[in-house]
Fold this protein.
Amino acid sequence: MPKAKISALGCYVPPRLLTNFDLEKMVDTSNEWILERTGIVERHIAAPDVATSDMAVEAARVALAQRGIEASDLDALLVCTVTPDMYFPSTACLVQHRLGAKKVWGFDLIAACSSFLYGMGVGAHLVMAGTHKKVLVIGADTMSRIIDYTDRSTCILFGDGAGAMLIEPSEDDNNGLIDFLYEIDGSGGDALKMPAGGSRMPPSHDTVEKKLHYVHQDGQAVFKYAVRKMYEACRELLARNNMSGKDIGCLICHQANRRIIQATADRLGMPPEKVIINIDRYGNTTSATLPLATRDAVTEGRLKKGDLVVYAAVGAGFTAGASLWRWAY
Ligand code: ACO
C-alpha cells in the first residue's frame, strides 16, 4: 500500500472577534472564569451572511494555492462539519461547485469534535487504497449558529472557522500516516447534543421555543470522558507502535478546553513546548481545531518535516481517537 501524507494546509477564520469581555456584557460570566476554566480569550464569529461552505471554500483555496494545484486536480473532497449549510445537498457538493472541482466525488462527515480526525483517516485510506491521488479534507463549522448566547455554560466555548488538508501518496515510505485508533461510544449521546431538527424531533414552534436547536451539554460528564479518553487513545496508539510520549515531536489535540489538553500531555509525559494550544485565540471551532492548530505549529516552527505528530480528539457521540503521522513538509 502507498503511504498517505499531508502535503498542504489552508485555514480561514472570519475577522470578527468575540472576546471574554464582550461575553461579560451578554451573560453572567467573567473573563477570569472563562480563562481559568477553559483557557479561551477570544473566538472568531462569522458574519450573518457567511455559512460553513463559504469558510470551507476559503480554507480550500489557501491549501490548493500552497500546493500550486487547481481544484480540478482533486479526486475527492470531504467536508467534516456539524453545521452544514443545510441537510442536503451536502456541504461537500456546495464546496465542489464553488471551487470548480470537476473530477471529485465527496461527502460530509459528521463526528462532532472528532470529525476532522476521522476525515484525515478516511482521506488517507482513499489514498492508501491506491484509488485516489489527491484528497482534500476540510473541517469547517459555524458553531455560532447553533449556540444559545443566553446560556453561559456553552456560549463561552465555541468559535467559527475552517481548515483544509490535502492528502496525497508519499514518495517516501517514512512519511505520512503511521497508525490510527478510533472509537465511538453512543452511551454518551445525551451528554452533548443538539436535540431537535432531525427525524426524531423535527422543527416546530415548540422546539424553537424550548431552544432545542442549540447545543445542550453536560459539561462535567463530557470533561471527565474527554480527560480519560484522550489520554487512553494516545497511550494505546503509541504503545502498539512501541513508542511513548517521549518519542513524539508534537501533540495536536482537539481544542475544547486547555485543561483537557494539559491533562493529556502531562500523563503522556510531554513537555509544554511539544504541545500545541491555541484555544486562547479561537475557542472550540469543532471540526476546524486540528488544522488551525497544525497551521500554528508549522508557522511557529514547532512542527517540522520528519517530526512524529500525534493528533487526538474527543467529541459528542461520544467519538474519540488518535492518529500518528510523520510530518512530510
Ligand atoms: N461563567 C461563570 N460561571 C459559570 C459559567 C460561566 N460561563 N459556566 C458555568 N458556570 C458555573 C456553574 O453554574 C457552576 O456554578 P455552581 O457551582 O454554583 O453550580 C460552576 O460554574 C461550575 O460549573 P461546571 O460546569 O462544573 O464547570 P466546569 O469546571 O466543569 O467547566 C466546562 C465547564 C468549561 C464546560 C467544562 O466542563 C468543559 O470544558 N467540558 C468539556 C467540553 C468539551 O470537551 N466538549 C466536547 C467537545 S464539543 C463537541 O463535540 C461539539
Observations:
- Residues 29, 33, 37-38, 112-113, 152-153, 156, 192, 219-220, 222-223, 226, 256-257, 260, 284, 286, 315-316 surround acetyl coenzyme *A (CB under 6 Å).
